[in-house]
Structure to design on (481 residues):
């Protein structure tokens, strides 16, 4: 064969792939009908879907009763789910027994958390958001100013927004060049005190004038200033420290100590989704840093006393179920407190759930630390970094990135485990549902209540799962295989 004939034979155009290998048919063939047993499994699943999905949709949507005043309105031939029951008890599911005239307080706390958390969780949020948040706070401040200071005696929503505006303007004015720092500072330093004051009410500052109270104040102020110093990468360190200290001082004094007319809302009125979110948010916020400290302490071979203390705490807590921890926090914790010092049930549950989650978080973080090659530690030491810089700049960022799935899985489990507080009498979302279906007006509607509860839990847990996937992709630097 001549070279010309050879070239003509080899240089033909590529033929298009067969229709059965591309498009919808190709995808179905490769994923559902690739083998004979895969095809049988697909047909069985489709048949089960045929039996279940139409009936479920008919019960949930098409034949559902959306307006009802009692269970009698839903008991007729062909009636589906009685969603009128959920609508009638919706406030109870959301807020528990919180005073109806104060519903705006937990709603405002949730809105604040959402506004400040989104820029921290998602890096691509534009810097204009900080200006928008500051503008909203400024508008509230203007409403308060035009309304007159005399309204302080009876605090309402506009006055509260005005007070938040004062703190927001101070914080944003100092950290405006770093939008993520503004939101991070607001969440870590200001938001906890604001939320305590809004949800509960003013705390008697005289009860904090003991040595323990002064120590707690000192630690919080030092931690707040240190966080401001560390997070402000583009600003003068002293200015950041002083600016955050001022905002933190205003938040503590204004909201925690004075209250400005907020009425006390006892924690025994907390319930429903509000209580579930309070328990989960606080426990998640405490368990991650405490778990990191415990994991580092467990690997501190040069400090045997600290290592033994951390190992003892982790193994002891992980050796018992959460319900035991809750009973211990409910009945044993008061025995270890000084005379005259007492915590209510919600605080005890927060302590128990946070400590329990911290022990499991410590093991997750320890797995990430053990996955870091020894050469990374040696490289950090060769640069002259001390222990804290080595961990903060080199080791922990890599370790936490590796164990993101484990961390989020622990958070999801913790969010669902908050339903166990019903054992100690706290009216969480699940116990509210149980008590609702025992009402004589709504007897026999357990399916609707538990379906609604399952949907709520699914939304939050699925959201955390998807954010975990987003974070893994964002931080992926070749460590995954």
């Amino acid at each position: 064969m001549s070279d010309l004939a050879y070239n003509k034979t080899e240089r033909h155009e590529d033929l298009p792939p067969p229709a059965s290998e591309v498009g919808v048919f190709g995808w179905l063939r490769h994923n559902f009908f690739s083998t004979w047993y895969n095809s049988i499994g697909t047909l069985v699943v489709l048949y089960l879907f045929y039996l279940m999905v139409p009936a479920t949709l008919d019960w949930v949507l098409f034949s559902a009763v959306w307006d009802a005043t009692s269970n009698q309105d839903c008991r007729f031939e062909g009636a589906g789910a009685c969603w009128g029951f959920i609508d009638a008890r919706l406030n109870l599911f959301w807020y528990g027994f919180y005073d109806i005239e104060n519903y705006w307080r937990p709603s405002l706390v949730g809105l604040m958390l959402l506004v400040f958390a989104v820029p921290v969780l998602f890096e691509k949020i534009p810097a204009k958001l900080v200006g928008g948040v500051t503008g909203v706070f400024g508008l509230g401040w203007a409403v308060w100013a035009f309304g007159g200071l005399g309204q302080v005696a009876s605090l309402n929503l506009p006055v509260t927004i005005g007070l938040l505006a004062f703190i927001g303007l101070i914080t944003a004015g100092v950290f405006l060049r770093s939008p993520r720092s503004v939101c991070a500072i607001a969440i870590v330093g200001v938001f906890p005190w604001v939320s305590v004051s809004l949800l509960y009410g003013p705390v008697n500052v005289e009860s904090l004038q003991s040595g323990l109270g002064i120590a707690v104040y000192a630690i919080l102020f030092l931690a707040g200033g240190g966080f401001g110093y560390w997070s402000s990468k583009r600003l003068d360190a002293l200015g950041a420290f002083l600016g955050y200290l001022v905002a933190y001082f205003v938040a503590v004094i204004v909201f925690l100590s004075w209250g400005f007319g907020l009425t006390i809302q006892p924690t025994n009125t907390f319930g429903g989704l509000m209580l579930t979110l309070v328990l989960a948010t606080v426990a998640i916020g405490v368990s991650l840093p405490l778990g990191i400290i415990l994991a580092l302490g467990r690997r501190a071979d040069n400090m045997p006393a600290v290592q033994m203390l951390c190992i003892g705490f982790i193994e002891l807590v992980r050796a018992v179920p959460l319900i035991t921890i809750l009973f211990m926090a409910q009945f044993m914790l008061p025995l270890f407190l000084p005379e005259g010092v007492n915590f209510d049930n919600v605080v005890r549950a927060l302590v128990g759930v946070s400590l329990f989650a911290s022990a499991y978080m410590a093991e997750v973080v320890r797995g990430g630390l053990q996955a870091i090659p020894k050469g990374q530690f040696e490289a950090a030491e060769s640069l002259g970094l001390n222990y804290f810089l080595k961990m903060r700049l080199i080791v922990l960022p890599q370790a936490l990135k590796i164990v993101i799935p484990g961390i989020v899985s622990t958070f999801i489990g913790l969010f669902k485990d908050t339903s166990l507080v019903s054992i100690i009498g706290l009216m969480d979302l699940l116990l509210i549902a149980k008590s609702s279906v025992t009402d004589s007006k709504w007897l026999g509607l357990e399916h609707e209540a538990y379906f609604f509860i399952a949907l709520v839990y699914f939304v939050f847990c699925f959201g955390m799962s998807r954010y975990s996937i987003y974070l893994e992709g964002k931080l992926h630097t070749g460590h995954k295989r």
